Amino acid sequence: MGKRGGFPGGMGGFGGMNIGNLMKEAKKMQADMAKSQEELAQKEFEATVGGGAVYVKVSGEKQIKEIKIKKEVVDPDDVEMLEDLILTCINEALRKVDEAQAAQLGKFNIPGLM
Fold this sequence. Notes:
The protein is α+β, with helices and mostly antiparallel strands. The chain has helices at 19-42, 79-106, and strands at 44-49, 54-59, 64-69. Strand 1 (44-49) and strand 2 (54-59) form a beta hairpin. Helix 1 (19-42) runs antiparallel to helix 2 (79-106). The protein is rod-shaped and about 70 Å long. It starts with 18 loop residues before the first helix and ends in an 8-residue tail after the last helix.
């Protein structure tokens, strides 16, 4: 009769890797990721549109910190243009946060994370 129980080849199911070492590595990676996320949250990202007509600053946590609008761009007869400039500027700043997050957390190479 063959062996009962266990895994074929006696590899322990993890290619011979010690489960203790695997857990230790996972905890280290988790701590490194938390540190990276904290560092990212402390950063600020800026964007401008319309030749500097609208300026936005956001945190790494995607919180709007500051919006500046030049007086020359405020036209009561063309509010839609100002709205578009503001939306474009905010979306650009948030895109920068997303890029930084992908670069920061992408180094951990965890499938399905990013």
